Amino acid sequence: MVDAVTPRGPKPRRRFSRANVMLYGTLIVVALYYALPLYVMIVTSLKGMPEIRLGNIFSPPVEITFQPWVKAWAEACTGINCEGLSRGFWNSVQILIPSVILSIAIASVNGYALANWKFKGSEVFFTILIVGAFIPYQVMLYPLVIILRELGLYGNVWGLVLVHTVFGMPILTLLFRNYFTSVPEELFKAARVDGAGFWGIYFRIMLPMSLPIFVVAIILQVTGIWNDFLFGVIYTKPADYPMTVQLNNIVNSVQGIKEYNVNMAATLLTGLVPLIIYFASGKLFVRGIAAGAVKG
Question: Quick one: CATH architecture of 86-293?
């Protein structure tokens, strides 16, 4: 007769314990809090105005129409221009791409130098960068107007690119410095012994290992630059307004009938780019954060 084996290990937890009910209940409430406005925006953008006037904002559309999306993209008036958000979209793309490339390229080199190539005054330089991250934007609006005017960049896309590059530098430098600090120092020393210099180590060793933190930086910059309204309305002229400024002109227009379906469609169109980039690279974003993006 074989003796019964006494089970060992921790006691299985009940699936519906009080702690689990509170945890999942809280998560569901928070998810509904953020998902409900999005649901209202989507269903409203697919309704015609007669159906919207019935007043039930939570009901799904009886008859789906994509005309509000077409009008928001190509026909809605943003001031005297009635080309919809299409012009603002391409303006935002022209602002976004060089801003993201320049800010991330410069910040990654800064972070790499501060983490691996200590020089006299490096800590002072890093402190100044970090302090710059906490200065309110509003304090620097007018001085930047003067600087851009003197440089001949005020009122055009490249002036706004310069502003976004400068303001993205502190936090991105911090992210890259912390990430490169977490890379094993032995790799850096071995490369130095093999004769690799500053740029050789950066391009051959650090860059290939840094995909997660670059994804973190791209998502942060794309979200911040694409959603920016303040800098866009101050440092560019109407012909170069980014998408967010044109969205504001559509939604806050006081002329004609208030078309809520067009407003909702325009809002969704404006937010699509950051959402697509986040969902396409969400796993790498989490990996970058976990791999040292918030290590000090």
Answer: Orthogonal Bundle (1.10)
For the entire predicted model, the pTM comes to 0.81
Query: Quick one: 29 exposed, middle or buried, by C-beta within 10 A (0-12, 13-18, 19+)?
Result: exposed
Q: Which amino acid is at 253?
A: S
* CB-based burial label for 138 (10 Å; 0-12, 13-18, 19+): exposed
Per residue in 26-48, pLDDT tens?
A: 999 999 998 999 999 999 999 99
Report the greatest alpha carbon distance in the chain: 95
Please list the residues that pair with 233 across neighbouring strands: none
Residue type, 123: E
In eight-state DSSP terms, residue 66 is -
Domain with CATH 1.10.3720.10 in the chain: 86-293
Contact (Cβ atoms closer than 8 angstroms) between residue 274 and residue 222 = yes
